[in-house]
């Protein structure tokens, strides 16, 4: 009988060899049908997959929308620009005088403008329909809300204008931006070429020239995208495998009724496809929800309007095609190690120990791709984008390849401990692969984020200038517009709550010739006016009485002080800006000059020149002074900074109060770092959610066992702890590995841009901290269901 | 199966003629083997002699079928004791048990009690057999197992019957 | 009502409802030290609920349960858990062995829950496995042993703490008759030699025949068959 070939097998073999496209379609369709008709269990599985894929898709869409959002923001910002550095122009029917009255409140920036239209055709700022009358203001919705609330009490005092309207969306760069335009009178004399100006239009003076992209910046952007999208991909891969074991059992049943193994695989792929298609729909919904939500949140002073977040159509289409395709591929790949037999599922992969060598090849390959670019930096031309992306990808994929091996080999060696520990370790030993798979996403996200933060922190040094400010002596500085009487203003600060010390100095430039356009003076020096006490902050004075005049020397910028300070000599004050613009103002060097020695002043510089006590300064001098009040502030007084700002605003609306910091960060990098951190946290939260889902699924499957364990007196604490260990061990290993890979990648990237290599521990700690937080959150959230499952009702089955 | 106890039980619901007794017996328990008149007479005379029944009255005419019997106090007690005593667990006793059940239902006694009593007796027997089996050799084990499986079958029948007692009551008292 | 004199565990007037279903409706129970009592009854009669109440896993809605002179129903969950850990043992039909622990680790688990050191616990576990003739399976995982072997491992685990009371819920329910009887023989022998009382819930008469006494539960009411004979 066996000699005769069975006629039935021959055509089957032929079919198997080359499944036709209709057959593929039929099997995929069948799988999709199973996914939706699988009863409650099937629905739950479909839903889990769809939510997972949906979250991933939403994140992808959001990521693709970020460039456009930033572009729109940038455009809005450009459109409302008031260019104050232009040439002075005469008052006309189409001019507007605008003054920059920015302030900040409780750490948030407030964009403020004083406006005075000078004719019927004065340019209208974006988002406005007209200008408020003097004493009135139009505000952004967020500012209105703040001023109306109790939190805004101090700001209300600072902005004593009547609110007559709100600024439209086109005039704002974010839903939470604080901004106002206040009507003002008599602004024209305040025109100074930088803070206040007469303008005829809003917007960039010349079409903003696209800056040739800084290769380092480009590198940063490329890596940020790879770093954020990799974990999403890992996450989607994990999501289509939700409930895989139950699916395998169903497939075994299919084999029993006669489908061959290839068909079974295609049917499984069809199930995944259905899940990911529903996931696409979910993702779109999540994205739209997230977009609305994005309008209501503010992250580190950056908020956007939902309308900004429009993914580029091409990228959105790519997502729509790539995600389902990836789902099918991942499923086929996952089933590679599984033999589905009619009577059950046999896992062929389990007995084989994981091998290290090919897993190591991936990160090493990544390093090899990046290595040639080491030292190219900003000076030696640009980086090869493909090598950068490829290298970073390989390194990060290397994490996902290495982690299962690490988890397996570490867990196999984990030994004694309490019962909770034993339960967790044994469970991990039995299924280290699935544990590692769940953690992969977190590991990749953390590795990428650490590397990025390191790179940014390193590069930031190049973009960070030391301001030289000495925050021990002075904590705040108020710059007074030219012409504001210095001494009365200083008085007001003395009585302001929270102020310890007031140093008021007014400065002007003195030269040997008139300050006329085109004719630069030959010699110039600085003139500083202040009380004896204030002057002692910039120079060592032998003795001081009001009326004294000093020549201070010995500093870096003495200028031509000694040359110019000859008794009786007539010197010219710089009047190229300000109320006396263009008029010549002179000051005669008095007969009696005292000598003084320059010391390091409050701004950290040592500048000498002529020092005048108030009585020595005549009205001419006072009119040209630019005053600065340096304040020592008692930070323990609540809202001390706000009181100072309020006093500044009361002295003059255009007075600018600034908080001192010892360094000034390049804001560009601060926002990238913040964005990266926020993105990484979001990705981690997403992965935490999927961890939770699979944790709960696992707990449900073990309901009977849990009840039995409770029956013989297992403490809840023991089981809860074992759940904690079960999550914590793989995540701890994942964080270790990802820290190592992240630091390596960070070092390589830093070397690539030629920056000093230093480990940015705060970011390593904060990223691993967030990872650890995810473990804790997952454990805590799975405790209530665990305790519920541990109730004896679980025994009451069958 | 005790015909005497059965007939006594049938009399509990009220005095009957001998002929009525036979008909009632045949209808409820006879099935394929109706009672002979002779069996009725001889049984009744034995019961009469033992004081479990009395002659309630004689109708005109001759012959034992004219006698009307009634149960005595002693007769009721006798039925009671019989119903409460479990049968020795042995094969094919369901006909006796069935008779007892029907009689109990007819006389409004607790039929479930009869089943439970029998069940307890069966299980006691099974315990003895199980014990012997544990201590005995293979031959003992095989013999005991045979008996155990039969007893188990009976026990299953008892359980099933207990679950269907309400339906049986309906059928019998209709 | 006080517990019958000399009883180890006694319950009186137990009532328990799960939503609309009444699982127990005034059930009674008592067991003496070293006694094996079978609890029988049709499925859904409440026999498992009775076992859960007696073992302090479930608190009855009303009624009293005294174990060794102590009232179980007023104990806190922690106290009852401690009691179950130290004084009671459990064998269920299935799903009770932790699949990722080896057999000997499973048997040692109750001892370890009581704080015994791992080595010592596993030594004791191995001794019990020897008595139940499954010591050769010590290093295997539950998934690699047969149903009968698994149940014997479970019995070893139930007895490893030397409990005074063993609760067995359909311990042979998933086994064929030969394996089932072997498990019952070993279980009752081991329990008797350790002087542990056994509450044996079963619907099989031949399993119940290993007991000293039988209780039948019907519609949430219990019936002590001993008093009928």
TrEMBL record, chain A:
UniProt KW keywords: Cell membrane, Membrane, Transmembrane, Transmembrane helix
Domain of life the protein comes from: Bacteria
Membrane-topology annotation of the record: Multi-pass membrane protein
Membrane-spanning intervals of the chain: 43-66, 216-240, 272-294, 314-335, 356-374, 386-407, 435-456, 675-694, 723-749, 761-783
GO CC aspect terms: plasma membrane
Domain spans labelled ABC3 transporter permease C-terminal: 223-335, 678-790
UniProt subcellular location: Cell membrane
Coiled-coil region(s): none
PANTHER family membership: INNER MEMBRANE PROTEIN, MEMBRANE COMPONENT OF PREDICTED ABC SUPERFAMILY METABOLITE UPTAKE TRANSPORTER
Name recorded for this polypeptide: Membrane protein
UniProt organism field: Streptomyces spiralis
UniProtKB/TrEMBL annotation, chain B:
SUPFAM superfamilies: Winged helix' DNA-binding domain
Superkingdom field: Bacteria
InterPro entries in UniProt: Tscrpt_reg_PadR_N, WH-like_DNA-bd_sf, WH_DNA-bd_sf
Domain Transcription regulator PadR N-terminal: 7-78
PANTHER family noted in UniProt: NEGATIVE TRANSCRIPTION REGULATOR PADR, TRANSCRIPTIONAL REGULATOR YQJI
Full protein name: PadR family transcriptional regulator
Organism annotation: Streptomyces spiralis
TrEMBL record, chain C:
SMART domains listed in its UniProt record: AAA
Residues annotated as transmembrane: none
Keyword Ribonucleoprotein included in the entry's annotation: no
PROSITE patterns linked to this entry: ABC_TRANSPORTER_2 (PS50893)
Domain ABC transporter: 9-229
Recorded GO MF terms: ATP binding; ATP hydrolysis activity; transmembrane transporter activity
Entry-linked CDD domains: ABC_MJ0796_LolCDE_FtsE (cd03255)
Official protein name in the record: ABC transporter ATP-binding protein
Organism name: Streptomyces spiralis
Lineage: Bacteria, Bacillati, Actinomycetota, Actinomycetes, Kitasatosporales
């Amino acid at each position: 009988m066996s000699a005769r070939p069975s006629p039935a097998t021959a055509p089957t073999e032929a079919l198997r060899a080359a499944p036709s496209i209709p057959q593929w379609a039929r099997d995929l369709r069948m799988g999709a049908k199973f996914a939706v008709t699988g009863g409650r269990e099937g629905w739950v599985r479909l839903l889990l997959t769809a939510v997972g894929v949906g979250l991933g898709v939403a994140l992808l869409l959001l990521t693709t929308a970020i460039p456009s959002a930033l572009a729109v923001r940038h455009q809005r910002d450009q459109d409302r620009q008031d260019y104050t550095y232009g040439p002075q122009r005469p008052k006309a029917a189409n001019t507007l005088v605008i003054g920059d009255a920015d302030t900040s409140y409780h750490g948030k920036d407030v964009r403020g403008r004083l406006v005075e239209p000078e004719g019927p055709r004065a340019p209208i700022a974006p988002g406005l329909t007209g200008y408020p009358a003097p004493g009135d203001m139009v505000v952004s919705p967020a500012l209105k809300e703040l001023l109306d609330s109790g939190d805004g009490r101090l700001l209300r005092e600072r902005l004593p204008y009547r609110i007559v309207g709100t600024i439209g969306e086109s005039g704002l760069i974010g839903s939470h931006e604080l901004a106002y335009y206040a009507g003002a009178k008599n602004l024209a004399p305040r025109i100074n070429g930088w803070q206040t100006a007469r303008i005829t239009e809003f917007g960039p003076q010349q079409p903003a020239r696209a800056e040739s992209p800084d290769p380092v910046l480009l590198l940063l952007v490329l890596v940020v995208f790879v770093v954020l999208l990799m974990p999403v991909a890992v996450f989607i891969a994990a999501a289509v495998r939700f409930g895989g074991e139950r699916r395998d059992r169903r497939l075994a049943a299919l084999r029993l009724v006669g489908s061959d193994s290839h068909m079974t695989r295609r049917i499984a792929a069809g199930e995944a496809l259905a899940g990911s298609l529903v996931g696409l729909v979910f993702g779109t919904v999540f994205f739209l929800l997230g977009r609305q939500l994005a309008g209501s949140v503010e992250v580190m002073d950056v908020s956007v309007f939902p309308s900004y977040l429009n993914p580029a159509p091409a990228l959105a289409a790519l997502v729509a095609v790539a995600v389902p395709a990836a789902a099918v591929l991942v499923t086929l790949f996952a089933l590679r190690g599984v033999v589905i037999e009619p009577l059950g599922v046999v896992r062929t992969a389990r007995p084989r120990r994981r091998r290290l060598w090919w897993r190591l090849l991936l990160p090493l390959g990544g390093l090899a791709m990046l290595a040639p670019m080491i030292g190219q930096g900003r000076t030696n031309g640009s980086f090869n984008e493909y090598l950068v992306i490829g290298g970073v990808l390989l390194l990060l994929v290397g994490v996902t390849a290495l982690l299962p091996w690490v988890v397996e080999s570490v867990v196999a060696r984990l030994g004694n401990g309490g019962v909770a520990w034993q339960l967790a370790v044994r469970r991990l030993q039995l299924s280290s692969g699935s544990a590692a798979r769940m953690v992969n996403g977190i590991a990749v996200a953390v590795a990428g984020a650490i590397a990025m933060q390191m790179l940014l922190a390193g590069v930031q040094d190049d973009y960070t200038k030391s301001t030289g400010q000495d925050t021990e002596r002075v904590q705040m500085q108020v710059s007074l517009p030219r012409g504001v009487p210095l001494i009365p203003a200083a008085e007001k600060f003395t009585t302001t709550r929270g102020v310890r010390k007031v140093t008021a100095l007014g400065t002007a430039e003195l030269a040997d010739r008139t300050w006329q356009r085109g004719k630069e003076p030959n010699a110039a020096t600085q003139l500083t006016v202040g009380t004896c006490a204030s002057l002692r902050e910039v120079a060592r004075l032998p003795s001081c009485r009001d009326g004294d005049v000093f020549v201070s020397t010995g500093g870096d910028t003495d200028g031509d002080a000694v040359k110019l300070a000859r008794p009786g000599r007539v010197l010219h004050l710089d009047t190229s800006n300000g109320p006396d613009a263009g008029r010549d103002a002179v000051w005669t060097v008095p007969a009696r000059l005292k000598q003084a020695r320059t010391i390091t002043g409050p701004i950290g510089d040592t500048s000498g020149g002529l020092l005048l006590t108030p009585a020595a300064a005549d009205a001419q001098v006072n009119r040209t002074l630019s005053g600065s009040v340096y304040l020592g502030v008692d930070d323990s007084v609540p809202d001390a900074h706000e009181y100072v700002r309020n006093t500044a605003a009361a002295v003059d609306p255009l007075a600018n109060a600034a908080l001192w910091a010892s360094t000034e960060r390049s804001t560009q990098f601060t926002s990238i770092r913040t964005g990266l951190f926020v993105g990484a946290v979001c990705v981690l939260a997403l992965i935490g959610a999927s961890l939770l889902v699979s944790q709960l699924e696992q707990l449900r499957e073990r309901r009977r066992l849990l009840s039995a364990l409770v029956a013989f007196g297992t403490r809840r604490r023991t089981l809860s702890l074992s759940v904690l260990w079960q999550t914590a061990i793989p995540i701890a290993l994942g964080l270790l590995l990802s820290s190592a890979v992240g630091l390596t990648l960070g070092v390589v990237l830093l070397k690539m841009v030629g920056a000093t290599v230093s480990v940015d521990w705060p970011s390593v700690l904060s990223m691993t901290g967030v990872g650890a937080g995810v473990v804790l959150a997952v454990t805590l959230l799975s405790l209530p269901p665990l305790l519920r499952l541990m109730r004896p009702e679980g025994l009451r089955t069958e | 199966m005790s015909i005497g106890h059965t007939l006594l039980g049938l009399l509990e619901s009220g005095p009957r003629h001998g002929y009525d007794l036979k008909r009632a017996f045949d209808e409820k328990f006879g099935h394929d083997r109706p009672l002979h008149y002779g069996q009725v007479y001889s049984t009744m005379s034995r019961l009469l002699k033992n004081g479990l029944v009395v002659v309630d009255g004689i109708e005109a005419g001759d012959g034992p079928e004219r006698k009307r019997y009634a149960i005595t106090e002693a007769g009721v007690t006798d039925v009671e004791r019989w119903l409460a005593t479990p049968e020795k667990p042995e094969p094919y006793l369901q006909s006796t048990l069935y008779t007892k059940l029907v009689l109990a239902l007819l006389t409004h006694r607790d039929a479930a009690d009869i089943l439970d009593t029998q069940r307890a007796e069966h299980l006691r027997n099974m315990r003895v057999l199980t014990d012997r089996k544990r201590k005995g050799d293979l031959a003992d084990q095989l013999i005991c197992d045979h008996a155990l499986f039969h007893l188990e079958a009976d026990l299953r029948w008892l359980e099933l019957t207990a679950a269907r007692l309400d339906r049986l009551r309906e059928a019998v008292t209709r | 009502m006080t517990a019958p004199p000399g009883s180890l565990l006694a319950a009186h007037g137990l009532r328990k409802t799960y939503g609309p279903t009444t699982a127990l409706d005034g059930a009674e129970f008592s067991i003496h030290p070293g006694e094996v009592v079978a609890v029988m009854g049709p499925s859904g009669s409440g026999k498992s609920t009775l076992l859960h109440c007696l073992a302090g896993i479930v608190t009855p809605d009303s009624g009293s349960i005294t174990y060794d002179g102590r009232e179980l129903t007023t104990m806190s969950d922690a106290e009852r858990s401690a009691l179950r850990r130290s004084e009671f043992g459990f064998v269920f039909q299935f799903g009770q062995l932790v699949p990722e622990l080896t057999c000997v680790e499973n048997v040692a688990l109750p001892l370890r829950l009581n704080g015994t050191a791992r080595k010592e616990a596993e030594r004791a576990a191995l001794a019990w496995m020897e008595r139940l003739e499954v010591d050769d399976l010590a290093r295997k995982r539950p998934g690699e042993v047969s149903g009968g072997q698994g149940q014997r491992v479970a019995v070893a685990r139930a007895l490893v703490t030397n409990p005074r009371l063993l609760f067995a819920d359909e311990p042979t329910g998933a086994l064929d008759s030969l394996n089932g009887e072997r498990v019952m023989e070993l279980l009752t022998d081991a329990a008797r030699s350790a002087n542990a009382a056994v509450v044996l819930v079963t619907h099989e008469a031949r399993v119940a025949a290993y007991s000293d006494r039988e209780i039948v539960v019907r519609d949430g009411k219990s019936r002590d068959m001993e008093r009928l004979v």
